[in-house]
């Protein structure tokens, strides 16, 4: 247990929360956790690099995340307590902005938060029972999105239903979007995958307001989709963003996704140049 709590999960450089082993690092293990960290741990095989995510003020504590920061606040708090035996009270976990929220069905312009039960714009109120029913429905949609036996068209209906009732920047809806993207790519529904991947990235930027390795992964996926659909100019811009993040976080690490991205970026620029010449 002591090794697990004080150790770092050695992670795959692309799928950054896929654990390969646990390592003990004499200095890095002193870093405390935050769900909005100012540092990130990057692995090159068994070697660890601690990189800053933003400028650090004098005297500011260095923090990393011990687990997937894309979980909802409730999930993060539960995981921190169960796996690391502490109650997370970081800035992000104490921020009410991350409370579960739904779209106001009255004004269609604002949201109703779980802890307020009242639209912040038009004043429309709902009961706690209504909120519970909506949360249960969202949970059902999330579970159904992971059910491989459900037809693709039905999943399209489900995500459209989620868009109508839910605040799409909510973390739970982000997970629904993520699952739908994976399913869409598997069914070769690349247009829908592209549309919702853009929404996911927008949500990600909204929540974290800082660059994280996961954002590289999402830009890289979007780059593939845009290139596949021959949307070259946008593919070039997105690939450049992915490369910038790759160079920021993975300058010391070599892996196949990085090699493929560099080659794709060169191919995109070549295709653009050829189209201009024609």
TrEMBL record:
GO cellular component: nucleus
SUPFAM superfamilies listed in its UniProt record: SET domain
Membrane-spanning parts: none
Residues in SET domain copies: 1-67
Family matches, as InterPro entries: H3K4_H4K5_MeTrfase, SET_dom, SET_dom_sf, TPR-like_helical_dom_sf
A Pfam cross-reference name: SET
PANTHER family hit by this protein: EG:BACR7C10.4 PROTEIN (PTHR12197:SF251), HISTONE-LYSINE N-METHYLTRANSFERASE SMYD (PTHR12197)
Protein name: SET domain-containing protein
